[in-house]
Amino acid sequence: MQPIKTRAAVAWGPGQPLSIEEVDLMPPQAGEVLVRIIATGVCHTDAYTLSGDDPEGIFPVILGHEGGGIVEAVGEGVTSVAVGDHVIPLYTPECGKCKFCLSGKTNLCQAIRATQGQGLMPDGTSRFSKDGKPIYHYMGTSTFSEYTVLPEISLAKINKTAPLEKVCLLGCGVTTGMGAVMNTAKVQPGDTVAVFGLGGIGLSAIIGAVMAKASRIIAIDINESKFAIAKQLGATDVVNPKDYDKPIQEVIVEMTDGGVDFSFECIGNVQVMRSALECCHKGWGESVIIGVAGAGQEISTRPFQLVTGRVWRGTAFGGVKGRSELPDYVERYLAGEFELDTFITHTLPLERINEAFDLMHEGKSIRTVIHF
Ligand code: NAD
Ligand code: AHE
Ligand code: ZN
Ligand code: ZN
Fold first, then answer.
1. Which domains does the chain show, CATH number per domain?
2. What does the sequence similarity comment in the record state about its family (predicted)?
């Protein structure tokens, strides 16, 4: 197979708008797959890396990690996917063989984590270039390109009847929020829950809490325009911290007779992470960090918060193992267990992808889905 040209949104440097370019893409090498991306969501993590706050951020790069696509070609030795298969790219791959995959304790496969973090394919090189100069991959997925190359272990093969322009959201946001509640926290019927931040992740956590039959779901955001959707999805209470002259954790502790059973931080704000921990019930409350914080930022609390039984944990991709478990999320969507339309507040062609970032920063969108 010869190299091809592909339309892609290139991030040439931190803080710069993406630039739509025709770039060169090398064919898939051994163990790699060429995928035609049909649609991709824009997640806050793309904006985080574009901003320059990501310690692993590297430029020039093709961002995007919430895609849905169709296999166009396979490299030597690829057996688990074939041309025409519908796939969701995985920034958390699943090799099934590494210590992490075999542990049964985590979804954080480490088989290719080092090269992925350097913006490279597992052989240490990039498939993307422009005028002979390499452009880096992002999170092993680079879905802001019409065509992209991924390792075979970074693809979940899904039901062909699923609409890719919707289930692309299961490539990150929706799976992360639902999985954090059901997989990481394992919320049980009757539990009380607080969700901080009502973007794509927080709203998906609300869906997860409803599915887990939580008795109370307190949705917290400083942007009240998010409250209607939160209530529609099942939040029982909505709270704006700006309405109170005391710390929001005190407000929630008072509302819940001592604190919630579980809280979820879906923003990436280290002060809010502290509030999320401290609004948990003494003795057993657990707080799950989902939000990604900028370089150099650290969390803090009084150790007494943990001595007295609160638990602080975190989750990536909702603890979901992409190849073995994500196809079932697609089936559950197809079976009508949850919906995705509410999340897709905007759709745009690739050429207008910068508007998706504007909408996110202005707090006007939940998810913009980009079409190619
Ligand atoms: P988003 O921008 O769509 O939503 C964030 C929400 O937080 C907004 O509604 C905003 O109004 C609200 N918010 C901001 N500051 C607040 C504050 N001080 N108090 C209360 N609410 C506040 O973002 P998203 O796409 O939903 O992503 C949320 C976070 O999750 C980001 O940090 C993202 O990088 C991270 N993330 C992590 C994972 C993971 O696997 N751990 C996966 C996806 C996203
Ligand atoms: N590169 C950042 C960390 C970014 C991060 O935590 N990414 C999450 C996924 S966010 C998806 O929207 C993740 O999967 N983390 C696990 C991992 O191995 O990257 C940094 O701080 O260096
Ligand atoms: Zn994401
Ligand atoms: Zn592995």
1. 4-171+340-371 (3.90.180.10), 174-315 (3.40.50.720)
2. Belongs to the zinc-containing alcohol dehydrogenase family. Class-III subfamily.
